[in-house]
Amino acid sequence: MGVRSGILYLVSGPSGSGKSTLCRRLEAEGEAEFSVSCTTRPPREGEVNGRDYHFLDRDEFRQRVDAGEFLEHAVVHGNFYGTLRSEVVDRLSQGRDVVMDIDVQGAAQVRSIEDTAIQTALVDLFVMPPDERELEARLTGRGTDSKDVIALRLRNAIKEMAHWPDYSYRLISATREEDYSRFKALLVAERMRVSRLGES
Fold this sequence. Notes:
The chain is α/β, with parallel strands linked by helices. The chain has helices at residues 19-28, 58-66, 89-93, 104-111, 116-121, 132-141, 147-161, 176-191; strands at residues 8-12, 33-34, 38-39, 54-55, 70-76, 79-84, 98-101, 122-128, 169-172. The chain folds into 2 domains: 1-35 and 95-193, Rossmann fold (3-Layer(aba) Sandwich); 36-87, Guanylate Kinase phosphate binding domain, CATH 3.30.63.10. It contains 8 helices and 9 strands. α6 (132-141) runs antiparallel to α7. It is globular.
């Protein structure tokens, strides 16, 4: 049997949906490699350059956009975010699974890429809380943002949640363990898809 193609597990959801925790746990358990995004926002306390994000200034970000180094990029909450091609394409060609924590703008860009390898690899999932009340509770419970930032994130989250029908799969959040069990099960199922298996 040949090497199966890698899976590009594209995961979106509003702030507070738990998507980042799911992606990081998948990586920690060795199930997939995390695609570290670039951003122009300043690091939060405890964040490490190259692990949480590649922190770039706006000029460097724009230079990399102009050089065609990004698979996707977007402006979110007033800052630039993007995924470098180098974080994804080589790994997929080697049969390694890559998980991307990405906003709806970036996800739409990835879906529109006319590259057979990307389209074959793509599995997209939208993670969302059961309702707006739960979302607000999660955003407030973080304790890391001001009331104004929380209000902005809540407004943006509600807009984002309108995009769930654009995705192939949707996960409505319950408990952390239930969410992770379903999240991992989708990846495991996609690995068994016949079209991903190499010729014998």
